[in-house]
């Protein structure tokens, strides 16, 4: 399958994304330890929880003095979106129960986004698995490095706090291939920004999913709808 | 931070992943629902980008990250490879912080 040049392109993009996320994981390791987690706890979170936004939200609430319950609430709401990603990915990830239970742990923002950006089913499956495994590897290595470095480095000094939104912008572009998707994106962004000052951390992202309601009308001629 | 919190969150996160992909995922979905689900990445990614660019906790801010992410968006639009987009985003953000 590596004779297919597009497949090589897809796989290399997926591995690169994993590496980029790994750089971001360093800043998670640093934040976790600064918020009072041990190196072992930071690493256990990345191995077991494995969903970056939830992990960041947990340590940020704990670090700013929030209770365990409020920290858990926000992190759990953020984790809920992986369930929705699972729904979107399920038709493309058939196989044994064991295989799907492994795929479940890898069902995150990056693997789903890379997969849905592909048109061909084989590319889609490859994008999911390669991104999932690459992010898993680099996310955990990065967390360990960051946790060991502890508070010795300041991630903002190197602009690392902008690395994550920059990566997501790059992933977002190919997703915006039709008018309906662009409206969903604009709505998601506006709803999220409008809510940030008024509701607890984590909720604006979930509320942004109202953008998907643009999928309700049946697609007509030129606004070709995509099938999941 | 307590280990209980770490393990409870790990269990919850995996529960949601399995619920979507394995428990519900096997069934055929109505076309309308499929169309909505296909829009999730667009809506969520856009929301995550603006949140990570324009907010600190619950405060809306415009700081060096806005310049970095704008540069990254321009690079992505010009089809610069992903790693390049990330490096540009981080470098411009860091540079604006030094100047500002």
Protein architecture, described:
- The complex is a heterodimer of chains A (228) and B (100).
- Chain A has 2 domains: 5-171, no CATH class; 176-228, no CATH class.
- Chain A has helices at 5-34, 39-49, 52-63, 68-89, 97-105, 109-116, 121-149, 163-175, 179-195, 203-207.
- The longest helix of chain A is centred in the N-terminal third of the chain and has 30 residues, at 5-34.
- The relative contact order of chain A is 0.16.
- Chain A has 10 helices and no strands.
- Chain A has 228 residues and is an all-alpha fold.
- In chain A, α1 (5-34) runs parallel beside α7, α4 (68-89) runs parallel beside α6 and α6 packs parallel to α8.
- Chain B is mostly helical.
- Chain B has 2 domains: 1-38; 41-100, no CATH class.
- Chain B is built from 5 helices and 2 strands; from the N terminus they run αααββαα.
- A two-stranded antiparallel sheet of chain B has the order 1-2.
- The two termini of chain B are 36 Å apart.
- The model of chain B has no long low-confidence stretch (mean pLDDT 89).
- Chains A and B meet through α1, α2, α3, α4 and α5 of A and α1, α2, α3, β2 and α4 of B.
Summarize the structure in short.
The complex is a heterodimer of chains A (about 230) and B (about 100). Chain A has about 230 residues and is mainly α. Chain A is built from ten helices and no strands.
Describe the secondary structure blueprint for this structure.
The complex is a heterodimer of chains A (228) and B (100).
Chain A: H1 5-34, H2 39-49, H3 52-63, H4 68-89, H5 97-105, H6 109-116, H7 121-149, H8 163-175, H9 179-195, H10 203-207
Chain B: H1 3-24, H2 31-38, H3 40-54, E1 55-56, E2 59-60, H4 64-77, H5 82-99
Antiparallel strand pairs in B: 1-2
Helix pairs in contact in B: 4-5
